[in-house]
Amino acid sequence: KEGFYLSQLVKRIAAYYDDKLKLLHTDFSIEAYMDCMLKGDFDRSVEVLQNMMENAVKYGDGRRIVLRFGEEEDCVLITVQNSGNTLPEHEMTHIFDSFWRGSNAKSTAGSGLGLYICRGLMQRMDGDIFAQVQDTDMCVTAVFRK
Predict the structure, then answer these.
(1) Are 1 and 125 in contact (CB under 8 A)?
(2) 114-124 and 42-59 helices cross at what angle (nearest 10)?
(3) Which end of the chain is more exposed for a tag (fewer CB within 10 A), N or C?
(4) Interval 36-93: pLDDT, tens
(5) Given the DSSP bridges, would you call strands 137-145 and 128-134 parallel, antiparallel or unpaired?
């Protein structure tokens, strides 16, 4: 397993999404974080975060996306939080199943594989990924080992 700095990952995501989200008139913010080394493959980590961001763009209401950070024990938690279009609680258990698409995805193209692939990638990097609804926001969190 390789290692990379959290700041490298954040800069890559910011560079790609700053302009894209401005064009969509979506407020995009990145909360403050403490830089540290993360375990895992940098390119696969970018793939995971891009997929989380793309889901926020596709299934959110287009008003706001926030990249948030937290720490637990020897892990860094990176959360993509978007406003609007959350899933009902009874659907949350299926969000990482292959080919599964939520009731909020009826009019949006997709295969239902993105978060399934993300879970597999995170597990291979000794991490995890989970999702939850906070008020009217959808939050998907990737857990990286330091």
Answers:
(1) yes
(2) 150
(3) N
(4) 999 999 999 999 999 999 999 988 899 999 999 999 999 999 999 999 866 667 776 7
(5) antiparallel
Q: In whole angstroms, how far apart are CA 141 and each of 23, 25, 26, 30, 136? A: 25, 24, 20, 14, 16
Cα dihedral 127, 3, 75, 92 sign: negative
- Per-residue tokens: 49: 């975060």
Token pair 């292959």 in the structure block, residue:
98
b or e along 35-45 (b: 16 or more beta carbons within 10 Å of the residue's beta carbon)?
eeebbbbeebb
**Helix extents (H) in the chain:** 6-23, 42-59, 114-124
Residue 44 in tokens: 């696969």
Q: What are phi and psi of 15, to 5 degrees?
A: -60, -35
Higher pLDDT, 1 or 74: 74
Model pLDDT, residue 51: 95
